[in-house]
Amino acid sequence: KIRNSAGVVTFLRQQGALCVRGNHDQSCQRNISEYHKTSGGYNLPEKYSYIRDLSEADILWYKSLPLTIRLPELSPPILIVHAGIVPRVPLEKQKVDDMLRMRRVKLKRLKKQRRTCSFGRWLYQKLTFQKIDGGNDSEGFETFIEPDPSATPWAKEFSVGGGCSILPESDESPHIFFGHDAKLGLQQEPYATGLDTGCCYGKSLSGAVVEINLDSTWDAKIISGPNHRLNKCVIYL
Asked: What is the rounded distance in angstroms from the CA atom of residue 110 to the CA atom of residue 135?
């Protein structure tokens, strides 16, 4: 999304920057594979023409980008993701497309059930092989890429009731830093902070400076400014 995308990739690799994969990175990786599969004969889309300028080291670094960065030793733990996390779903069960593109969620409407006694309900569940604990939480929400008036920003839903314990390494709800939702802009929920303020559309560039205390707690300060004044923006740890 900038004039010197290849230069930015090289700079981040050389600086040892920790970055998460986003939806554009995912698309770029597919184009890299096609380009090299055809020995350069693949007709690259204009927005991915910078692939020709990436070195082998740049490509290996780019392909190694993780979907999340986790800091479970902090209190609360920090989780960094590009787009979003479905509330109450363990991290290992999250869908890749949701983490890369999701903006909103909505609880699925449950089917009406017949009134039965406890034994009757238990027997019915056993006979129909239903989980007694309520089933798979990952099926509890519909996810939305585009804004939907009937859906809620996932960060707001995630923070309801004190967040969600989703990390395998911690029973505490993480605080999630994310981007992707330029239309909604800066989001500051109790357990999630959205930092996409539309820099690539001529608006502000925002980030978070995180200061870690001796007891592993931390404080975050949001920094923001016009896109021509801030030339880099990361979460500093």
From this structure: 12
Give yes or no for a contact between 79 and 167, defined as CB atoms under 8 angstroms apart.
yes
Neighbours of 89 (CB within 10 A): 19
Look at strands 104-107 and 141-144 and give their pairing: antiparallel
Distance CA 24, CA 100 (A): 9
Distance CA 102, CA 141 (A): 12
Q: Which amino acid, residue 192?
A: A
Locate 111 and state its tokens.
């089917």
Q: DSSP code of 213?
A: -
Q: What is the pLDDT of residues 23-78, one digit of tens each?
A: 999 999 999 998 888 877 788 888 889 999 999 999 999 999 999 999 999 999 99
Closest CA to 94 of 128, 38, 140, 152: 140
